[in-house]
Amino acid sequence: MKSVRGMLPKTKLGNAMIKKLRVFSGPDHTHEAQAPKLWRYN
Prior knowledge:
Layout: H1 2-7, H2 12-20
């Protein structure tokens, strides 16, 4: 989280962005309704 915070602006906008940030460990997450698709780049 510290590395992400360091890349954000040091303003009110940066504070709002860090509050909305969600970090998930592993492939399990709560965004199943969005149905992400695997995209392969050749």
